[in-house]
Design goal:
Blueprint: H1 9-15, H2 24-33, H3 36-56, H4 63-68, E1 72-78, E2 85-91, E3 93-95, E4 98-102, H5 113-120, E5 123-128, E6 131-139, H6 142-155, H7 158-165, E7 173-178, E8 184-185
Antiparallel strand pairs: 1-2, 1-5, 3-4, 4-7, 5-6, 6-7, 6-8
């Protein structure tokens, strides 16, 4: 287990099950999912499958996590333009009590909608392992961004391919910090 996934005593309650699995099968799936044709397909379908598996498992698993071992969360935001509540499953990394999200959008030329939602409304909810907590988002810049980008690439090599496909778009890194006293039980 890498130091990046160190669990603090407070975060341990919230992050149980977010540790990546290892093994050749997971590595093969991760490499395949980073290829152009497969990521094109996943960009259009994986979030639907993730939602179904999360619903069936009581919020404990996603297709992404089961197939590749990559940790995932459910992010709930308010729409940037509509104000409607939007929920999407995303790959997530933990750094003590912070959650790190990569706005790769599978290497598309534009950032995902959830990124724009967080820019407009930085307060968001994360659900994992049946627990829901409220976080405040900010975009990482400078050294903070570079640090988390390296950690993201270590977690999932596909992010490097996504960066190449994104062309001139620099993939944003979003840091979510918990708002104290806001944890609720979503079960």
């Amino acid at each position: 287990m890498s130091a990046f996934f160190h669990l603090t005593s407070e975060a341990n309650v919230l992050m149980v099950g977010l540790l990546p699995r290892s093994g050749w099968g997971y590595r093969v799936i991760q490499k395949l999912s980073a290829t152009g044709p497969v990521s094109w397909l996943l960009a259009r379908s994986l979030h639907h499958l993730d939602r179904l598996i999360m619903r069936l498992s009581g919020g404990r698993y996603t297709a992404t996590r089961l197939l590749s071992g990559i940790p995932t969360v459910l992010l709930t935001t308010r729409g940037a333009r509509t104000g409607k509540v939007r929920t999407v499953p995303l790959v997530a990394m933990q750094d003590d009590d912070k959650i790190i999200l990569v706005a790769s959008n599978f290497g598309r030329s534009h950032s995902p909608a959830w990124y724009y939602n967080l820019r407009a409304h930085p307060e968001a909810a994360l659900t994992f392992n049946g627990r829901r907590s409220i976080y405040l988002a900010h975009e990482a810049t400078g050294q903070e961004r570079e640090f988390y980008w390296r950690k993201a690439a270590d977690l999932y090599a596909g992010f490097m391919g996504y960066a190449r496909r994104a062309g001139a778009r620099r993939i944003p890194i979003v840091v979510l910090t918990p708002m104290l006293g806001q944890a609720t039980n979503a079960r």
